[in-house]
From TrEMBL:
InterPro entries (alphabetical): NAD(P)-bd_dom, NAD(P)-bd_dom_sf, UDP_G4E
Name the record gives this protein: UDP-glucose 4-epimerase
GO molecular function: UDP-glucose 4-epimerase activity
UniProt cross-references to CDD domains, sorted A to Z: UDP_G4E_1_SDR_e
Record organism: Methanobrevibacter gottschalkii DSM 11977
Family annotation (NCBIfam families): galE
Amino acid sequence: MILITGGAGYIGSHTNKALHNAGYDTVVVDNLCKGYENFVKWGNFENYDFGSKTLREVFEKYDIDGVIHFAAFSSVAESVEMPQKYFKNNYKNTLNLLQIMREFGVNKFILSSTAAVYGNPDKVPITEDQDLKPINPYGHSKFITEKALEREAEKNDFNFVSLRYFNAAGADFDCEVGEFHDPETHLIPLVLDAAIGKRESISIFGDDYNTADGTCVRDYIHVNDLADAHIRAYEYLCDKNESNIFNLGNGQGYSVREVIDMCKKVTGRDFEVKIDERREGDPDILIADSAKIKEKLGWTPKYNLEQIVESAWKWHKKINVI
Ligand code: UFG
């Protein structure tokens, strides 16, 4: 049985579905502070906070073989405003989970990490061995969590895989689950809100970055490609007695303007685009070099930006009746 923290959330629910389709038994642990119970359509569900001591009850009830840990706060902008909230939940509460895992002899762990651990990278595409210099508390909270995992793995019978996601986007092609944040802060769903008429315009947060068109460049990766990587990472932990850290991105960067243009193309709708102030904590360019996970786990992303936006638009139309 695989325990999925945050399995009622965006990436966790897609991974739960993929694990189910691959024949795994799962138990989702989620306190529903961000997730949705109706996103848990596969496996078992337990409403617990992963930072709570009572989480032991879940380990007593189920025979847990490994943990995939999605539950975390993940808004860069909010983390700048409320750093302690991020360090407490993303770092300190993860130590609670690790402690309980140790008590129950569960020694396989997959962490949802992030490209935000790199800060403003020295070179792009970014390889895993580059210096980690997070420029926002969210990235910093994941950076120190990775360090705690490395120390744990050095000392104990424990292995982990840390997956550094670049920009997760898109939705399940069957629309059984999808992206739904409240409040929404991510670029693609906000642009689709403009396309669908839920907002009048979309704002670009700064057009004076050191990029070709002045807007930030990101590497967008389909959520199902991320889900597939988690299964491979879990199988790797089952097969090999070692830990590892992998980037997960498409290896292609798109500027905010290019993403907006793609959304206009896919939806066939036009809307106003405004230039606004920079958002604090945003690096200029984040593009992944994912050669390591391709080589070690045989993972390759299947979906490009157009397919990402198409799947997101299909989901967006389902949840917003037009
Ligand atoms: N942006 C806008 N206007 C908006 C919303 C976003 O211009 O209304 C810009 C942002 O400034 C940024 C880009 O679009 O340059 C992407 O922003 P998102 O909020 O969609 O995503 P982030 O890059 O800030 O962060 C995401 C995840 C993080 C993760 C990071 C890693 O939310 O958890 O990708 O690359 F750390």
